[in-house]
Amino acid sequence: MNNFRILSIFFLICIPYYLFSQQSERTDTNAPIKNKEIVLEKDKRVSFIAVPLVFYLPETRLGFGGASNISLHWKNQDRSERPSQFTIGAAYTLNKQLLTYTSFNIYTPGERFWFRGEVGYYDYVYQFYGTGQERADENANFFSRYPRLKLDALRQISKNVFFGLSYRFDDYQITSIEDPERLFDEVSLDGGITSGLGIAGVVDTRDIVNYPSRGMLFELTVQGNNEAIGATYEYVSVNASFSKYLPIRNSVLALNFNSTNIFGDAPFYELALFGGGKKSRGYIEGEYRANNSFALQAEYRIRFQKLKRFGAVVFASVGQVFNEAEELRFENALPAVGGGIRYLLSQEQNLNLRADAGIGINGLQFYVTFAEAF
Q1: Which of 37, 150, 208, 337 lies in disulfide reach of 118, CB 3.0 to 4.6 Å?
Q2: Which among 2, 198, 209 has a CA at the least distance from the CA of 103?
Q3: 196-206: per-residue pLDDT in tens?
């Protein structure tokens, strides 16, 4: 898909929301006005948005569907606390993929407890280029189906610091493969159950969840998959992510480090993946996969003053996959650069529609989706 078609999709999605927002500003005469912008009523505790989904990712091609998001403060919760959020979505893609999910972040009053997770069902097609640092010239495809459950139950142990239990369940079935290059000849295609139980820790000082301008977010999850809790394979996964947000006048410099480390006998589809719309734009998710992966990202974000719903970003990243520490060498690095356009879908939730283009060492990739990469 060329640049013009990607931008066309982006602006076709933006137009209905722009017209709706303009109509709302003209007709809502009872809304209090401040600096020519609508200000929410002080006692309004619920924000709702429903959107048609039209998106593009290298892994899915064009996708269609719908999603809704509810953001709320409970009746006895202070408005300065983080809101609870519930998202429901369903989509079908031109790669014949079906995605249905419900995700949630629930904070009790005082943020004493935080429950977050996802329930979903996926009928998905993944691209496979082999494992390790060697990438095949042509990819194979494997088709899979699985229900998913993810749940973190966290307790606040000090201000902005949470700690608790983490669980993940997938019942993974590989339904068929397309492998003209015979990349799977030495790979087991058996599916299985992922059942990982462990701990999670979060430090979150962001000022705004969906579009932070200051603060930081640190997340660490350690899960063990074991036959005793129903897992087919026995291994430990360690996922870490650290993001820092620095305000610069009317813009934001966002920095991120993320890593995944696998210890034990994990199947190929549970290895540490490199690439995708969040971790390393410019690479297809899973274009590289190994026992370990990491990426460093930097993104400069700006919202235009005159076109108040529009913004832009430029970003760069570098990372690597490896199985052994001696593979960590400069010549094995995977750099990428790119940029994108933003459209503010919801002023109440600070939720953006984003269109990005990233260039990695293997070519150009496009992304049209929702919310920031990190």
Answers
A1: 150
A2: 209
A3: 999 999 999 99
Q: Per the structure, how many domains does the chain have?
A: 1
> Look-up: residue for tokens 């902005």?
160
- CA 42, distance to chain mean position in Å, is 31
- The CATH number of the domain holding residue 305 is 2.40.160.50
Range of the domain at 124: 3-370
pLDDT in tens, 115-139: 999 999 999 888 999 999 999 999 9
With 0-12 / 13-18 / 19 or more C-beta atoms within 10 angstroms meaning exposed / middle / buried, residue 185 is: exposed
Sequence-distant (6+) residues with CB within 8 A of 273 are 260, 279, 285, 286, 288, 289, 293
pTM of the model: 0.83
